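ok posting inputs for the flavin mononucleotide job
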Amino acid sequence: MRLLLIYGTTEGQTEKVARFVADQFAQRGHQAQIVNAIDEAAAAVDPREFDAVIVAASIHAGRYQSAVIHFVTKNLIAINGCSNAFLSVSLAAAGEDEDDRQGLEQCLAAFTQQTGWIPQRVHHVAGAFRYTSYDFLKRWAMKYIAYRKGGPADTSRDHELTDWADVAQFVSDFLRDAQSVPQTGG
Ligand SMILES: Cc1cc2nc3c(=O)[nH]c(=O)nc-3n(C[C@H](O)[C@H](O)[C@H](O)COP(=O)(O)O)c2cc1C
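and the output
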């Protein structure tokens, strides 16, 4: 199976998740091409040349990266012709808080409205506090969020909340479904 993995990242955690997913595909004998939505390569890539498309993006102040929104909107028909999934990376996904879960659904609803895309599968992935890459204002804001939510307060280092076993399980589930459904696009 040929997989296209398009991602948006602001501090790098979604890129790490995307690379992990691509590695998981490769380990299972599949080809994965990974493209950052803001790179020039994203304008040239054609999802119709793939069997599956996974889009990954992270939430910042309730929104996903605009380059991802642009890519999905532009390539909607081709993406819908493949097995597809959306990986949403956030800190809200790290906990069980009901308000946070509702917030995630609202972000997703806005993304669907902006792009017109209803992914076959949506998976929420816990991201990271990347304190070492924040500027002063972001570090202060994220430390405040951590304080309110019981997150990590030590700003001298990064704190990764991503559950890698869960992401690997997502890959297994995605492959199982994709291989059992005949492709309709092309
Ligand atoms: C300025 C800022 C705003 C954020 N806003 C949200 C948010 O609204 N909801 C949420 O669940 N996580 C939020 N996060 C957490 C990010 O989604 C999380 O850190 C994720 O790992 C970022 O992925 P990236 O490094 O690929 O950009 C925010 C992070 C930052 C730095």
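notes: Residues 9-14, 58-62, 89-92, 127-128, 130, 138, 142 surround flavin mononucleotide (CB under 6 Å). The chain is about 45% helix and 20% strand.
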